[in-house]
Structure formats: structure tokens, C-alpha cells
Prior knowledge:
413 residues; alpha/beta; Aspartate Aminotransferase, domain 1; Aspartate Aminotransferase, domain 2; 2 domains; 7-stranded mixed beta sheet; 4-stranded antiparallel beta sheet; 14 helices; 17 strands; globular; binds pyridoxal-5'-phosphate
Amino acid sequence: MNQAAAPADAIDWARIREDFPVLRREVHGKPLVYLDSANTGQKPAQVIEAVDDFFRHHNANVSRAVHALGTEATDAYEGARRKLAKFLNVRGDELVLCSGTTFAINLVAYSWALPRLQPGDAIVVTRMEHHANIVPWQLVAERTGATIKVAEIDERGDLDLEQLYGLLTPEVKLLAVAHVSNVLGTVNPVRDICRQARKRGIVTVVDGSQAAPHRPLDVAAIGCDFYAITGHKMAGPTGTGALWARREHLDAMPPFLGGGEMIKQVRFEGTVFNDAPHKFEAGTPNIAGFIGLGAACDYLSAIGMDNIEAREQALLEYATGRLDATEGVRIFGRAREKAAVISFLVEGAHAHDLATLLDLEGVAVRSGHHCAHPLMQHFGVPATCRASFAFYNTFEEVDAFIAAIAKVRQLLL
Ligand code: PLP
């Protein structure tokens, strides 16, 4: 596939969809309509084959063996780091490969924040964060005596920037913010936010889990200190992800986990650690997974992230319009800039019942709190349903989704 130069409307999206074997299956006798890509993305054959090829032809551990397979595995693993670095527009030696965003943020919490924060210091998080960008900071706050302050959202689901900037007082040492909300789809102006924080000497952690799969990214231009991504949402295998950090932070941070791979020399008198990023990559990594993630970066780049964004925006607009025209549907989140995520409820139906009934129609949506309890609290609901779209979805699938909602409403009335 080489569609890089084509604009979104000139791309053969039906052809691209064929790359995803799982999308050909049926559930409950109906064609699968997969609207849960914010949870995990589906994998194209190119990624599946890259993983398969590694195990069939190259399987060996990395950075240990000098034999041919060992060298091939190391080259492929480090090649994947370079591909991901290029995809994010960062330096490979500033990219720590890890199991995903949860690990990446915990690495910052334990290795950067824990040794530095003190009683009287504060951490700012936003109302729309995933638990992965809340709980590690609570653990740090508990152990250091720091406090947590919360940036709130307005009625559209945008961050209240005036209130946020008002929170950035001298005791604040760290600001943790999602690039894109996994529940509301809100795209936060992270460049401006990071500039404001930096002016005040505040370190920024951006959770890019829902941004990296869906829009062109230039992490270097955002101006943050740390940026976390998770591979399984961007067409890559589960158990892959990365933390980008400024070199000065990586050099100053102590290792998070100790073991093999992260050392230069071990003596009982003391250990000399490897240089970053390897200093933070103790133990055997998910080699095949990262090779798959490298293939995913190639795959997404060949389509073009701006094309992917345009396609998903068109699906979002169409689905929002159709949901708005459906009686009894309430949408949560109408941000000015929004990714293709729609949280919603249908009058008279609990989110889990709704998702279960939609599943019987072949439509897979997520229901629950979406790992965002504080946001559910804000809206006064225990749970919502969430339809999240990717470039491999079709307008016909949106129609099937709306038809399934109409059928479920009939059942429930
Ligand atoms: N942050 C956001 C915004 C997410 O949507 C998710 C996953 O749902 C995560 C963090 C956690 O990612 P992972 O479980 O892959 O570490």
C-alpha cells in the first residue's frame, strides 16, 4: 500500500479496511461493527505478519547474543524504536520503550516525581484524565506530602483554561494532562498549556494515548517534558508503548526497575547503570510486540496521519448528526476540537444493558466508567456508552449503529 500522497477523499478506504482480518467476522450472526477503537485498535495484516515473521525466522533475545539471530532481533527491535521516534518526531535516544501509557506515567511518577516532591508541593491534573494519569500522582502525593489540584471542564467538555492557569501557582511542580480525552474526545491545546506551565517552571506530562493513533503528531513541538503513548491503540500489539522525555530528565532520573539490560557493570560493591533510554528498560522486552509496533508506524504513516484524521473527522461528524437526530440520545462532550469518540446514553437504558443489546446486533461499543470515575462523577452518571471510530470504519457502519440503537429503543420502550 502506498497512499501517502493521496488526499483523504482519494484514498480507497474500502481497500484499506480489507487489511484488517477481524473486521470480516460476524458476531451473533451479524457483521461485526467495531466501534471500540479507543479501547484497543484492530490490527492490520501487515502488523500481524511482522510479529509472525519475527517468531518464525528471527526469534532471539536482544542485546545479549552475538549470533546471527541475536543480531537480527536487536537490529529489528532498535529499528522499531527508530520508526516510533520518527512517527512521534522525537529522538530515539529519548524514547523509553515500555508496556504502555500506564507504565510510562508510573515511570515518571516513581523516577521523576517521588524523589523530588515534598510537603507543600502540588500536582495539577484535569477532570478528564484516565485513571492512569490520576492514580500514580495520588500515590506520589501520599508518599511525599504533596497535594493534588484539579483543572475543571466547562459545559462543552473543554478545559476551563482560565481556571487551569489560575491553578499554576508557585507550589505546583507538575502538571499532568491528556492530549485527547478517551471519554469526551476533547482535544486539549497542549502546546499552549505546556508553554504556560514551562513559563512557570512546571514540568508537564502529556498522556498521548488517544492522540497518537488519530492525528499527525509532533511531540517535539508540543514543548512538554514527558509524553506517553500506548501501542495497542495505534494498530500495534498489546504490551507495547513508550515514554518520550527530555534528555536532561532521563539523565537525572534514577532507574525505575533494576535487572538485566539496564546496566553497564554489576559489582557487589555497586552497579553502573546503562545510559538512557536503556537504563529504564530492565529485563527482556516485548521484542515481537515492538517489531509489530514498528510495522504499525509504517502502516499508519503510509496512509498518512492527516488522511486518517480527516477520515475519522468525517465519520465523527456523520455519526454525531445521526445520533442528534435520534430521539432519547444524550451525548456527553461537545468540545470545540474533538476526536472521533462519542460518549452517550439512551433515555431509559442503563449503559451496560444498552451495550449488551447493541452487541446482539453486532455493534461493539464500550460501556462503563471508561477508567474516568471523576468525569462520571462530574456528569452525575455511573457509566456511559462510548462509540469510538477509526479510519477502517465506514459510513454504513454508522448507519448500522444508529439502526441498532433505534431497535434497542423499541425493545426498551
Ligand atoms: N490514558 C488514556 C487516555 C487511555 O485511553 C488509556 C487506555 O484506555 C490509558 C491511558 C491507559 O493505557 P494502557 O492501559 O495501554 O497503559
